């Protein structure tokens, strides 16, 4: 039986602003040829991603990444994670 490798895309995240007082993290995420800006209001558990083009591809995986890494994320930091899909 042959093993097929599952497709994946690496998403690159840059945190631009982080405010504990306001309960927000904002930045950009790039995956394949898509570029989005995001704002995560972690006190309200609300993630906004724009533009709308391709948003359905990234919103859920980005939300999981932010929730898992929230205390490690710093302004100016560059991070990455893999999405089990090829864009």
Name a few traits of the molecule:
five-stranded antiparallel sheet, globular, single chain, alpha+beta, 87 residues
List the helices and strands and how they pair.
Blueprint: E1 9-19, E2 24-31, E3 34-41, E4 46-50, H1 55-69, E5 78-83
Would you mind describing this structure in some detail?
The chain is of the alpha+beta class. The chain has one domain. It has one helix and five strands. The chain has a five-stranded antiparallel sheet with strand order 4-3-2-1-5, covered by helices on one side. The longest helix has 15 residues, at 55-69. It is globular and about 45 Å long. The two termini are 27 Å apart. The mean pLDDT is 92.
Extended strand count: 5
Q: Terminal Cα separation, in Å?
A: 27 Å
- For this structure, the quaternary state is single chain
* Mean pLDDT over the residues: 92
What is the approximate shape? globular
How much helicity do the residues have? 10-25%
Tally of DSSP helical segments: 1
Q: What composes the largest sheet?
A: 5 strands, antiparallel
Amount of beta strand: 35-45%
Question: What's the arrangement of strands in the largest beta sheet?
Answer: 4-3-2-1-5
Provide the number of structural domains: 1
Uncertain ranges = none
Label the structural class.
alpha+beta
Order of helices and strands: EEEEHE
- The gyration radius over C-alpha positions equals 14 Å
